[in-house]
């Protein structure tokens, strides 16, 4: 142990599971014949450690608690928070740029005459570019470091915002959206890794989760901006799309002065710089131990895995990293397969089903949905270091699955009482439309070309007809009684596009709210947080690139297939399907996700030493207890990886 020597008394915190891990390794190294002796040795060691723990608890409990408090206060200088917040601006831009487009499209499609294909291109162009650049970001991160990647992402965000705000035609808009997407992809894989690498272990989960808080904050802010600028019929979209340049420039300027990740620097042999940055991040804590542990780990890894061949091949042939990759990608896949982005995207429809007639009100209520997502991500930030990643993810996904079942039941009940279509007025232009073939509102609502025009008698639907929707605005019919908004509202007529008036809408609304309450604290942030910590340093960039790529690919898949899924399976079928995926996700997470709370990044690899479906049970926090051992040194100091400290 190379910690600076000093003469006062120091206590070291050591987890029993670490000691056992060390001994297990030693045991495995020894011959089979010495197994019994080793086991006996281990039993006596455990007993001795338990006793020493009890003794120290009895004699110095208060002292140790004070030491721990003092340690944790000392350990976290404000600089770590500043660095984390500046990086998390990348998350904010990710949320803002993916969220703002729905409101901008409402205005754009009128001003630039965009057809459905172009609208689709402007949305998916960004997400597709994000998927590609997340994958490429792995190589960049490994070669150039985290800081240049964050600078690159904020540069791309700024350039994209400029192009979008100044665009004169749809082609330029698409180019701007692709540039922004490239920024999102790089930011989404780099920021969590960077924060995890600069954070002290006891705060790592919380600080990385702040990045997801910023994502949902960006989505909320985007929905408010959409609401405000939707009143500005001309050029409102320029402000919506261009505003993201402000946080992007702030992040760029900030990162000109912020440091590189010390772990990446050590890996590249820039040890002096790494030490300097590490001591800036750790305040008055001695950093020798952390520094040595990172350095030893890198050397050990190189010995164990070798340094030849592409990282992804080495990851796939080395069982612990292969398992970590499956867990990381699986988490990201199940996050998207639980349907978060369709639930968010269709929240306005769900709210309209619940009787919100006014379009502007629906826009503002959609902002409320984004706000619930944001606030409950904050609950996640609070819970992650209390409950740990595993319990939080399992609890969150269970609630999400139940909420999806309630949401689907709301749509099912509504479909069962779907109003009959009673009128079939002839099309004045004599064009054949599919809308006349539906006998119930349910079929009419699932056809993207049609909407229901009806009157209400008390609460029952009367005089209903299924009519083609206006090509420029889904707020009115293409012809007939519901084709002029101001006129039909005066005549007590209603127009329902994408939904049916139903007495069971409250069930869907309840499902929506419960969904966000459960999803946001766990399934929203944990896939990002866990991925930032489960890979060893040599595999971290590549692991995060792959898992972020999986997140974006499934994001596109789920959003692009939602309408078709709803057409074939109906809305309730689609949400039951997502509930099924969530249930599968639960089994996967229960079996495969180990607890990483409080562990050093360098220790986490050992959690994946067991067979994949047993990783979830290995070395979790349950049954693990903390022990203080008296060692030489200066202050009360936490240390957990060097047996030479023990007196
Ligand atoms: O973690 C985030 C968050 O939950 C967002 O709300 C969602 O839009 C993203 O797809 C997801 O990756």
Q: Would you identify the regions where 5 or more consecutive residues have pLDDT less than 50?
A: 1-60, 619-647
Question: Which geometry do the CA atoms define?
Answer: elongated
Give the N-terminus to C-terminus distance in angstroms: 13 Å
Structural class: mainly alpha
Strand residue percentage: 5-15%
GO cellular component, one term: apical plasma membrane
Family: Belongs to the major facilitator superfamily. Sugar transporter (TC 2.A.1.1) family.
Function: H(+)-myo-inositol cotransporter. Can also transport related stereoisomers.
GO molecular function, one term: myo-inositol:proton symporter activity
Characteristic terms for this protein:
membrane; cell membrane; two-stranded antiparallel sheet; Proton myo-inositol cotransporter; 5 strands; binds 1,2,3,4,5,6-hexahydroxy-cyclohexane; myo-inositol:proton symporter activity; disordered C terminus; 647 residues; mainly alpha; 3-stranded antiparallel beta sheet
What would you note in describing this structure?
The protein is mainly alpha-helical. About 70% of the residues lie in helices and about 5% in strands. The chain has helices spanning about 15-30, 35-75, 80-100, 100-110, 115-145, 145-165, 170-200, 200-230, 235-240, 245-255, 260-265, 270-280, 290-305, 310-315, 320-335, 340-345, 345-355, 360-385, 390-415, 440-445, 485-490, 505-520, 525-535, 535-590, 600-605; strands spanning about 10-15, 450-455, 460-470, 495, 625-630. A hairpin with a 2-residue loop joins strand 2 (about 450-455) and strand 3 (about 460-470). The longest helix is centred in the C-terminal third of the chain and has 56 residues, at about 535-590. The protein starts with 8 loop residues before the first strand and ends in a 15-residue tail after the last strand. The structure holds 1,2,3,4,5,6-hexahydroxy-cyclohexane. It comes from Otus sunia.
